[in-house]
């Protein structure tokens, strides 16, 4: 059977504040601008999770989309949706919740619930002008 | 000259928490669910501002789109973009920042900077599943 | 309180065949073309259901979006989603499932589960080039 | 039968230059800015043509979408698509091709090929931030 | 000349039923859920066909987009559009028409009408939440 | 730190005429059809510029999106937006402004203002049916 990429698209609504504990208040304000304002702001994040593999000839499926979406919803969206990432998600107490770092976090959360080596790509759209793609390259 | 509707589309990213001071904590939690969680969450709001009028036969314009967008940006987006509405916008200290109330707020802010009677419609999309339309009906 | 329109967007995937029992086979083929082919075809329908009313000053809501979407899902989408409309939905045994007739059907199903007079508009997109809007005008 | 609105969405790619012969060169440059630059520029226009009426109970159709789209393509898009409106379309030799004036032009062209009184709305999107709606109000 | 990827986007509307002849009725129902219901359902499939190569320095084109779209329409869309894939397309009598298998089918149909080695990717969106990407990896 | 791709999406409106000086008038007309008509036509181009690299562990950023968008706007969009590419951009006096050639031009312009080796991909959408992807493969 050929090798294909299956992508599940979901959305979640969260707020965040870009702020690095390794920088001074002034450096944070200068680097992140309005994204550093004290009380944070939010986005409708669009999340595309892609897995890659060879469909079973009997079923025509590699991973059932419903199973993939269940993993995404139960392991990831139930944690981050309608949350203030900086305060509500322990991982982002010390990690600045940039789109880049959120994408890596999504990868790390989901990877352990999917067949080994099947996770292919995390694509995260933060706004209409900003998106990040991560393919697990450490 | 015929009468037309001109619409300017912009976006802003803000966070909010649905919470009514006229309800108990328990009532708030029950009515608003995850939208009431303590630290708020956020959205990329899509805002469509429509004005209605007769273009000038000389120019082919009623209100110049650039002027309309300047009003929207300077009077409204500069105030709400990248803000936590409940804490940062005085109007929402006492008013629950539902999509409905945000749309009315946008109308009330913009109306005074546009030619009398020209504001036709505020259309506010909060998520892919939720939008509100307000045409100034008191 | 002002009067606003609240819109909930959902989607459903269904198949149909355009065929009128009041026309001959030849008339059906000529009028509906490829939409009349024997075994039907399908669409991802985009459904926008709008209600209109005055929000409660205490809550900032007219109808809670979650309640509106629950009505749409339980009373309508659970019936039509993943169905072949002509065979699976009794209403369309005698009624040709054009986008126009589906929109009227959606109105008639939903109206009885919503506050009297609150249903404002059904907007149904069948493809990227075809949509129908119904506001209850009999 | 109920009364419904049927909408056909198409696109065309054209160029234009905003310039009014009733204004001086300096006034044109000041009013229209970059839209007045000498050699013009272009857009992918999105055109939504809506008709309103009561479907035939026998067919479930008011105007067949295919017939509506044929009128739009043959009478309008074949004329304006891939054209420089100011030079190639006689109507815009004396009329400034603003989005407002193009929408009125579309109405006037299409109205005569559609059943009397059936044309309901022209919606023309020029860019992601600018659209115009015309409902035939003279 | 540099090497580029050219992508043509089209859509087609088809219906299908997920059902594997290698599984029992009960296994099919359990694995495919509502996608296995007896009379099928449908989608507006979005198809993106990508070719890769070096443009001719004289023309600035590798494959003319119009020629590419003609191949896609005549060899593929004319076959699958407005069809019930399981019954109308011989290939899917024995092959379960999952998005994965449809994407491979599109590749196999188109590959023979395009310059050898030029087909780069088939991207097929079945719904807003499900898409498949195939790059010819056997 | 992991390696990620950051993408900035912008748009510009320009006009062009497909015409190769290496071909006769008749060959140009035959090859490019309506895209060769004398006075040109235009598009809203969607431009996605992607850079790839490892975020700084201190900031969570590789290249700040605001800095990336500033480069795109100042070095590229300020040059091509609202222009007739064939006449206004010296590069396209001798180079046919196909989507393919525009994408390569965008790469060549932007590459020199970005950290060495960081530019990963130019994705240019000309219409809803045509896009081009360039990853710097000479």
Task: From the structure above, extract its key features.
homohexamer; 138 residues; alpha+beta; four-stranded antiparallel sheet; 5 helices; 4 strands; elongated
What is the oligomer described by this structure?
Answer: homohexamer
Mean pLDDT over the residues of chain A: 97
Count of separate DSSP helical elements of chain A: 5
Q: Largest sheet of chain A, described in full?
A: 4 strands, antiparallel
Biggest interface pair, counts = A-E, 20 and 25 residues
Class by helix and strand content of chain A? alpha+beta
Low-confidence stretches of chain A: none
Shape category of chain A: elongated
Please estimate the helix content of chain A.
Answer: 25-40%
How would you portray this structure in words?
The structure is a homohexamer of 138-residue chains. Chain A is 33% helix and 29% strand. In chain A, a hairpin with a 2-residue loop joins β3 (119-127) and β4 (130-134). Chain A has five helices and four strands. Chain A is α+β, with helices and mostly antiparallel strands and 138 residues long. Chain A has a four-stranded antiparallel β-sheet, with helices on one face. Chain A has helices at 25-32, 65-80, 85-88, 91-94, 99-111, and strands at residues 4-16, 41-53, 119-127, 130-134. The radius of gyration of chain A is 17 Å and the shape is elongated. The model of chain A has no long low-confidence stretch (mean pLDDT 97). At the A-E interface, β1 and α2 of A face α5 and β4 of E. β1 of chain B pairs antiparallel with β4 of chain D, so a sheet runs across the interface.
């Amino acid at each position: 059977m050929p090798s294909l990429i299956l992508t599940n698209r979901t959305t979640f609504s969260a707020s965040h504040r870009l702020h690095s504990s390794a920088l001074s208040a002034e450096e944070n304000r200068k680097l992140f601008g309005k994204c550093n304002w004290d009380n944070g702001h939010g986005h409708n994040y669009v999340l595309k999770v892609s897995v890659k593999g060879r469909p079973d000839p009997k079923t025509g499926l590699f991973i059932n989309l419903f199973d993939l979406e269940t993993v995404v919803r139960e392991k990831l969206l139930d944690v981050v949706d309608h949350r203030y990432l900086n305060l509500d998600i322990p991982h982002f107490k010390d990690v600045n919740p940039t789109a880049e770092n959120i994408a890596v976090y999504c990868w790390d959360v989901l990877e352990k619930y999917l067949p080994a080596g099947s996770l292919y790509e995390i694509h995260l759209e933060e706004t209409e002008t900003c998106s990040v793609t991560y393919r697990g390259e450490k």
